[in-house]
Write a structure and sequence with these properties.
single chain; seven-stranded mixed β-sheet; alpha+beta
Length: 571
């Protein structure tokens, strides 16, 4: 017998599209009787995604749509030096380490021609790796700022005018720096742009000529003849001619010779035998740096001195809608962000803590089911597990756990094997596991537990300093080995309530497998046993009011319950 902690298993929820997802990645649409997953790696998707706005992760400027086709930050502000503080330049990243760069004004390198007269130079500077845009020639002259280096003392109005003039000059210098960068990019792309324009002109001219020939009926016979002679050899068309042409093309591909402007050259001649110095290797950008340059340039950069500052791409803020709710004619919005990405932050005077216009994350509404510990007994082909159910709402919830009855729709118990092959149990660590089906006879033999009434959720932060309350004694003394070795009425499969305390309940689960089913599980190695169960939550009569689900028009003595699917993973 072997007892394992919760790290060797878990509990995932089933959404309306039969996808298995942890509770933290699921949503509960308003007044909906099912869950929907927010994962984007599932097929078919459970939600639709709509881009509401974009923002720059550097200066937090935002807009409802990207202002340019490139989708990069192009904001320039006034008020001082540096990104977002009065610079006419937009946010940029370092082409070496991809950290944010700032606009800096420093003394230019002293040359023999300049003498002792030091010039000021405006350039991009990375505070992490020390890269400067002087390497690629992106600079602007800032000598006009020399007479404004010291502050003007005297009358307050005079000092304010002095500071205003200084800010205007800084803005002009940084604007020249941005203009210099744009000129470098245009110069780098000039050849490729002209080549692309010439190709476009050729195709436009050819299209006009073909349209003219089509109207006049010219060239139709020539095109038919050309198509007929495509695979015609010296003796006419034949299968041997086609095979011979394919063989010749394959020989050209496998040839050790390559074409160069000077003619055919052997591949061995293209590499030099000279040793490359360490300095030359350091001057060559790595593939990641080269790929980042392709965002702004058409030609690949082969030297460090060719690397230009990289514009910062926008990040999108999206809203999601449940596709099942949309199919019924409802809006189905499960999450919708605010326009300002900083709204809700403590730095904002108003609206602190309100990050979203609407947030229907299931962790705030749906009871959370966790796997505390479990064990297995290969001799008796059985599993035992302890589940913890906790209320997350500010109201009372009445619920019970049950197996899947034979009378229920068989499709509700069926989980696609593709879902079981790729189950995410830890979204933070991105841990995926593989599962296997549990016998339907075992699942259907589980009798429902008694109805549990969980009180409203308690705020644990309010009890800081009062000491931690221990779990009930039944939970502390629970032993999987004892449950697995039990005989009599407890020898079969069952699910029953072990203990309850205010907003939390503990349920013990035991599964007794058939010998063939247990043996097949051992053959699967490290795969998990996927046990689908149902959580029935009563709606109405003061239960689960946070869901906003209306009670059906049924007699008052009957229970209106919403059923949510769960899958317990055991190993």
């Amino acid at each position: 017998m072997e007892t394992k902690n919760s790290t060797s298993g878990g509990v995932v929820y089933v959404d309306h599209a039969r996808h298995l997802t942890p509770l933290t990645l699921t949503y509960h649409a308003t007044a909906s009787r099912h869950l929907t997953t927010g994962r984007t790696d599932v097929v078919p998707p459970s939600t639709s995604v709509e881009v509401d706005s974009v923002y720059c992760p550097r200066c937090f400027s935002y807009c409802t749509a990207p202002p340019t086709s490139l989708g990069v930050c192009e904001k320039s502000t006034g008020g001082g030096l540096g990104g977002g503080c009065g610079s006419a330049t937009s946010c940029k990243d370092c082409p070496i380490c991809f950290c944010p760069v700032s606009v800096s004004i420093d003394a230019a390198p002293v040359s023999a021609e300049a003498g002792d007269d030091k010039q000021l130079l405006c350039h991009y500077l990375c505070g992490y790796c020390g890269w400067s845009s002087q390497e690629c020639g992106v600079t602007s002259n800032a000598s006009k700022l020399k007479k404004y280096q010291s502050s003007r003392k005297g009358d307050e109005d005079v000092a304010n005018d002095w500071e205003k003039q200084r800010q205007e000059i800084i803005f002009e210098i940084s604007r020249d720096l941005e203009h210099c960068l744009k000129q470098k990019v245009e110069q780098r792309n000039k050849h490729c742009d002209s080549l692309f324009s010439s190709i476009v002109e050729i195709f436009i001219k050819q299209e006009k000529e073909e349209e003219r020939n089509r109207r006049l009926g010219i060239g139709e016979i020539a095109r038919k003849t050309e198509r007929a002679d495509t695979f015609v050899g010296p003796g006419g068309w034949s299968l041997e001619s086609l095979e011979q042409s394919l063989i010749e093309k394959q020989k050209e591909i496998d040839s050790p010779w390559i074409w160069s402007p000077g003619g055919l050259v052997a591949l061995s001649d293209t590499t030099t035998s000279d040793k490359v110095s360490v300095e030359q290797i350091q001057q060559q950008p790595n593939p990641q740096q080269t790929a980042a340059q392709m965002v702004i340039t058409n030609a690949a950069s082969n030297l460090r001195s060719h690397l230009l500052p990289i514009p910062v791409p926008f990040r999108s803020r999206v809203s999601r809608r449940c596709l099942a709710e949309l199919a019924t004619g409802k809006t189905g919005i499960v999450i919708k962000p605010k326009l300002n990405p900083l709204e809700g932050d403590s730095s904002i005077k108003f609206g602190q803590g309100q990050w979203w216009k609407k947030d229907s994350n299931a962790v705030n509404v749906v009871p959370r089911v966790q796997l505390c510990c479990h064990g297995s007994n290969p001799t008796k082909q059985s599993f035992a597990a302890l589940l913890k159910v906790r209320n997350a709402t500010l109201g009372v919830i009445r619920l019970r756990l049950s197996g899947l009855s034979v009378s229920a729709d068989s499709s509700s118990a069926t989980i696609d094997q593709l879902e079981l092959d790729n189950i995410i149990i830890d979204p933070i660590r991105e841990t995926f596991v593989q599962g296997r089906h549990c016998s339907f006879d075992v699942i259907s033999s589980l009798s429902p537990t008694e109805w549990l009434e969980l009180e409203h959720a308690e705020d644990e932060f309010l009890d800081i300093g009062k000491g931690r309350e221990q779990d009930p004694q039944e939970v502390l003394e629970w032993d999987a080995n004892k449950i697995l070795s039990s005989t009599g009425d407890d020898s079969g499969s069952f699910m029953r309530v072990l203990a309850t305390r205010r907003d939390t309940a503990w349920v013990e689960l035991k599964l007794t497998m058939a010998p063939d089913d247990f043996a097949s599980g051992l053959n699967h190695g490290q795969s998990y046993l996927a046990v689908p169960i149902a959580m029935e939550i009563e709606v109405g009569n003061g239960s689960w009011e946070a869901s906003l689900i209306k009670r059906r028009d049924i007699p008052e003595n009957e229970v209106d319950a919403t059923t949510l699917g769960l899958v317990v993973l055991l190993r």
